[in-house]
Structures are given as C-alpha cells and as structure tokens.
Amino acid sequence: MQRPSAIKPATGRLGILLPGMGAVATTTIAGVFLARRGLGKPVGSLTQLGTIRLGKRTEGRNPKINELVPLANLEDIEFGGWDVFPDNALEAARRARVLETEHLDAVADELKAVAPMKAAFYPEYVKRLSGTHVKEAPSKYEMVEQLRADIRRFKQERNVDRVVAVWCGSTETFLQQTPVHQTIASFEEGLRKSDPNINNTLLYVWACLKEGVPFANGAPNLGVDIPAVHELARETNTPIAGRDFKTGQTLMKTVIAPGLKARLLGLNGWYSTNILGNRDGEVLDDPANFKTKENSKLGVLDSILEPAKHPGLYDDYFHKVRIDYYPPRGDAKEGWDNIDLFGWMGYPMQIKIDFLCRDSILAAPIVLDLALFMDLAKRAGFRGIQEWLGFYFKAPMAAEGLQVEHDLFVQQSKLKNTLRWMVGEELITHLGNEYYD
To answer: Is 160:11 a contact under the CB 8 Å cutoff?
Structure first.
C-alpha cells in the first residue's frame, strides 16, 4: 500500500448499504438521523468524537479525526440495504426494541423511507430464519447479478456519488475454504453451478466488489477472507475489511489480555459465557451457526498472549466460550468472564467480569466508522485488505504470512498512525527521548 499523493475529497453523497436490516443496522440508521438533528450524540464513534495527536506533545496539536482526513459528513449519508423481512427501518427498529419510542418517533419519517430490497438468501446457511422477502434466481450467479442491479439502481434513485457496504446480517453456518474459493475463475464457475460452499455473505461480497463498492464484514461468516475475493479486490481496486464486529465480551478480552501479558501474569483458564435474546442470539442457538462465532472468539487470546514466546505462562491454559439464547434479555447482552491467573511464585488469583452491555448500541458506532473509513480508503486509492481497520473486528485480517494483531491498543496505534501517514504527518512512537538530557 503506497501513501496517497492526494486523497479525493468527500464531495457529493455517500450511500451506505447494509445487508441485514435488523437491530444493528436500524440502530445505526436511527442514531445517525438523531445525531444529524442534534437529538443524540454518536458516543463510541471514532470518526465523530475521536481526536488524534500530531507532532510533539508540547505542540498541543490534537485535531478531531474528521478534521485531519476528509470524511463524509453525516448530512451527506443515504442509507439502504437488504433484508429477508419487508419491514422498513422504523418497523424493524420497533421490532428490535433497542431504542426507546421517543427516539424512534423523533425520526420516524426518515426511518420509514428506508425500506429494504429483497435479500439474496439461501436458508440452509441460517436455519433459524425463514424470511419471505427474498429473491428468486436459477443460479447463484444470477443472484449476484440481481444484487449488482440493486446497487446500480440504489445509486441512481438515491442520487449518491459513492457507495460502501457493511454486513450487518446474521452469523451463518461454518464453512471452510475449498477449491471454489481460490481464484476468480473457480469462484465464478461455482456461482454458475450454485456451489453449496458459496454462502449468502459471499454473494453480497462478490456483487459489491464487481461494482467497486468497498465491503466490511461484520459477522464471522466466510466472506472477505478467501483468495478469490482478495484477487477481485485487487483487480477492481476495492478495499475490504473484516471479520466480526468487536463489541462486548471480545472487546473486554482485547483490553484485559494485553494487560496480563504486559505484566507477565500467567493464565490457567478463561471461561466466557453470554446470554443474548435478539435475532442474533436465536440464530446462534443453532450449533452449526455457533461454530462460526466460536471460531471467531476463540482465536483472540492465543494471538495476544503468544504462548510459544512465553512458555510456562500461556502455553497450557483452558479457554471456553458459550452463548446461550435467552429471549427475555433481548438486545441487552450479558457477558460473564471468569479468569484464573497466577503471579509471583505461582500463587493463584482470579478476575471476574460481568459486562451488562447492549449489543447493537456497541455495534452501531462500529458500522458508522467502518463505512466512513472504507469510503476514505477508496478515495485514497487503497485496495484489498485494510489491516488498519482491524481495531473494529474480533477476527481481523492481515496479509498472508503475517501474524494477525488482536491487541486493542496496538490496533488503535496502527489505525491512528495510518491516518497520520495518509496525510504526511509524522508517526507517533511515544519514545519521548528528546525531552530529557
């Protein structure tokens, strides 16, 4: 990735397409509408509230991130998307019961105007959903062509200049890479044959990349992480990012685990369980779908703790993750963690965390930030994997052969240094030797 000689300005309107217009998507949409009217604050959004240090600490240069790089304004955003149910964004948001009625009523007219397009949906990948608002096509190749037509029509009808897509749909059944995923040619042949190893997510990814639309995958589904997609992203000069929004329990792991490693405190075991009652919880109640999520969540600790480099501290710990569907909880997810650690002379200690969080409230600012940063990446001429956006994902991607970084603080440093680098500012190392004799 080369430093951009110039970043195209964020002129005109930005379309944000959201495959899956459930709780996360509608919470994002309503929040942006409320923020535009000054009726709510986009808490958690780096693009809206974050600042960035430039130069030495003594210079006092700390602009907002959206003042350093040219990001699209909230006023210039137009939302669209697809869903297996026909409810508009207002109806879907009321069904999701994340936001209070007073907030939804304040932007009801705008939410009503965001109606989903019919979804490209094969139910074998999400068995707990039985959607009625779905496309029909003789092959998956034709299904992709219908999605491409949707993107072009949305762009024309909504008068938008640029489009990005962020997957907000359900977790799908676990799939491993097969020969169909290796090249553009093999993948398109698989589309024509409706290969069962091509899931719903991949249909949207392929359609978006064919249209030059940046795509961020907010679920652990097989999608942006296959060689054929990487090849197409390079060919079409399109950014991709993923996978799986880092919201509740995994967010806590990427905060706590770096602290344990920094102080070289040993780990015997980490037990994590969640209760969740929204549509995502219902889908994850199916073991085949949970396996996809489990793989995403289990990879975090090894990457941060690096057991091979720390024998005796992290090479023999037990890690367990559970998610239980509990309808009364709705979107208010609760995550419990029991951490068995040890310190000086091997003496045992424990940490217990009870995070009573709100799934969609934590995910919404991620969706917004990814959309705006992916649009920035496209205008800067970036293509392929955007590792600097790993800050937002449970299972971030990196170039082949590279160790994936999960440490939240390393990820934050990489994100901010990438922004500095993009505009020709000095990178921050925090060395600080120049202040001392």
So the answer is: no
